[in-house]
Amino acid sequence: MKRPRLSAVGPRRAKLHRKTTETEIRITLNIEGRGKYQISTGIRFLDHMLELFARHGGFDLQVLAQGDLDVDQHHTVEDVGIALGEAFDHALGDRRGILRAGYFLMPMDETLGLAAVDFSGRSAAIVDTRVRASRVGDLQSELVPDFFEGFARAARTNVHARVLYGRSSHHKIEALFKAFARALRVACSRDRRMKRMLPSTKGLL
Ligand SMILES: [Mn+2]
Q: How many CA atoms lie within 13 A of 132 on its CB side?
């Protein structure tokens, strides 16, 4: 897979096919999208999260995943996170001219979730869903941190996501995905004043 050059000028898109013995995933991403999506992972609640991720981020996103759900959901959820991270990494190219970091505080009725991201070139994920239920809809809720860790690793990005308070488990996870989408939307945005500048003093991101 080639990294596009002139990333901050041309259309920032990625298309990838990721296949292992555990999962097969096809993704297309357009960062300059209009929130259109086609999502099918075999886990309906994860589909719901990725659909609202696309809409709130203003990304066009297609995710078609087939995983070994007969084992459990771990491989599928983690690998979808990895594939999405790879898609952002490719679409952003050399990361010149982007804001690079972003955060968002997202209310979801009685719940408040926050996400902060930095396309730093290094990966870290600190996630606290405050969900105690083992399942939310058909999703094994303990896998939400695995999703964000997979993304952070593949996109070489710092992701901090935590629920500050809330009651509904559904709302808690949803608030995190919405906050994450909106934080990414900011971080991926073009910086008009710093057009061709690398948003780092290090010389590489
Ligand atoms: Mn919902």
A: 4
Residues 102, 124: Cα–Cα separation, whole Å: 15
pLDDT at 6 over 50: no
* CA 115–ligand 1 middle distance (angstroms): 18
How many angstroms is it from 90 CA to the middle of ligand 1? Answer: 29
Q: Any idea where the domains of the chain sit in the sequence?
A: 13-188
The architecture (CATH level 2) of 13-188 comes to: 2-Layer Sandwich (3.30)
Residue 9 CB: number of other CB atoms within 10 A? 14
State yes or no: pLDDT of 141 exceeds 50. yes
Nearest to 118 by CA among 92, 87, 144, 147: 92
**Distance, CA 69 to ligand 1 centroid (Å)?**
22
Region at 130 (left for phi over 0; alpha for psi -120 to 50; beta for the rest): left
